[in-house]
Amino acid sequence: MLRQKYVRQIDTLREDLLRLGSMVEHALKRAMHCLQNWDVIVSAQVIHDDKQIDETWRLVEDKVIRLLATQQPILASDLRLMSVVVAIAGELERIGDYANSIARRVRRATRRPAFVPAPDGLNEMANLAQRMLHISLDAFLNQDVELAQTLSEYDKRVDQYETDLRAELLDIAKSDPQRIEGAIDLLDVVHALERTADRATNIGERVIFLETNEIEELNP
To answer: Whole-model pTM?
Structure first.
């Protein structure tokens, strides 16, 4: 009976992590909607809902702590799962922060006297970052090492977008001083997306570790 309860708790832990992942995916998608449509109403919702992401993150960590405190002995595989869950939850919370940051930048940008439209490559970079997050969560759900390993190539493409977009936005800032602040807003969005991609590769690395007990760097 006690073992069955423990197994249910482990299963619930996985479900809580995937629920957190779904919340973060939704936040990131809405943040990019804000950027594409300069939607300050949705940006306010993203900022408000970040509290729920933080609360779910803390819930996952608390459950792991309780399991460690009340279940002895713990199998090595279960201990590895718990450490991975905590690590992935932390990565997801940070991605939620990036979505929050993008939403705040959109709200701020709409108040600037000189408007800077988002370059075309920014939407493409955002789509890649969102795809990477989805892949990383699918890899965890299906315990798919090969899928997790595909994140490395995606990350290289995101890095190239970051390089190109930074150059483009800096050129805008240099050519028109009135648009410097607007360009800085978009540079921060680019940074948030690049970090989102990095966090997704971190999740992929944790999935690989969970399944193989080996450390593999996807973003060397």
So the answer is: 0.93
